[in-house]
Automatic annotation (TrEMBL):
<feature type="domain" description="2Fe-2S ferredoxin-type">
    <location>
        <begin position="2"/>
        <end position="106"/>
    </location>
</feature>
<comment type="similarity">
    <text>Belongs to the adrenodoxin/putidaredoxin family.</text>
</comment>
<dbReference type="GO" id="GO:0051537">
    <property type="term" value="F:2 iron, 2 sulfur cluster binding"/>
</dbReference>
<dbReference type="InterPro" id="IPR036010">
    <property type="entry name" value="2Fe-2S_ferredoxin-like_sf"/>
</dbReference>
<keyword id="KW-0001">2Fe-2S</keyword>
<dbReference type="GO" id="GO:0005829">
    <property type="term" value="C:cytosol"/>
</dbReference>
<protein>
    <submittedName>
        <fullName>Rhodocoxin</fullName>
    </submittedName>
</protein>
<dbReference type="GO" id="GO:0140647">
    <property type="term" value="P:P450-containing electron transport chain"/>
</dbReference>
<dbReference type="Pfam" id="PF00111">
    <property type="entry name" value="Fer2"/>
</dbReference>
<dbReference type="GO" id="GO:0046872">
    <property type="term" value="F:metal ion binding"/>
</dbReference>
<dbReference type="GO" id="GO:0009055">
    <property type="term" value="F:electron transfer activity"/>
</dbReference>
<keyword id="KW-0411">Iron-sulfur</keyword>
<dbReference type="InterPro" id="IPR018298">
    <property type="entry name" value="Adrenodoxin_Fe-S_BS"/>
</dbReference>
<dbReference type="InterPro" id="IPR012675">
    <property type="entry name" value="Beta-grasp_dom_sf"/>
</dbReference>
<keyword id="KW-0408">Iron</keyword>
<dbReference type="InterPro" id="IPR001055">
    <property type="entry name" value="Adrenodoxin-like"/>
</dbReference>
<dbReference type="InterPro" id="IPR001041">
    <property type="entry name" value="2Fe-2S_ferredoxin-type"/>
</dbReference>
């Protein structure tokens, strides 16, 4: 079991059981998490799947690719050091217990 907690901008939280091999974006959408729009469907062309990772998730995810890093510049909510595109982070056992924060807006 890989438990991931999504935190909304208002502080409300929902913990879901994620499946290894899915992305964080797919996990959020499969569980009805608001605020992960993912307009491009995961092809790294929209930045509407922007999220903020906690330390567990950052360690598990590893560094962003140059392409992801470039796309994060287009995120509606200004990026931070812990910003990632959730469609580019694959769920592994190392993500168990991670907290993913949704930005204020994706548009
Ligand atoms: S879903 Fe579009 S960049 Fe992630």
């Amino acid at each position: 079991m890989i438990d991931i907690t999504f935190i909304q901008p208002d502080g409300s939280q929902k913990t879901v059981a994620a499946k290894a091999g899915h992305t964080i974006m797919e996990t959020a959408q499969a569980h009805g998490i608001d605020g992960v729009i993912a307009e491009c469907g995961g092809s790294m062309a929209c930045a509407t799947c922007h999220v903020f990772l906690d330390d567990i998730a950052l360690t598990a995810a590893g560094p962003a690719s140059d392409s992801e890093d470039d796309m994060l510049e287009f995120a509606a909510t200004p990026r931070a050091d812990n910003s990632r595109l959730s469609c580019q982070v694959t769920v592994t056992d190392a993500l168990n217990g991670a907290q993913i924060t949704i930005p204020e807006t994706q548009f």
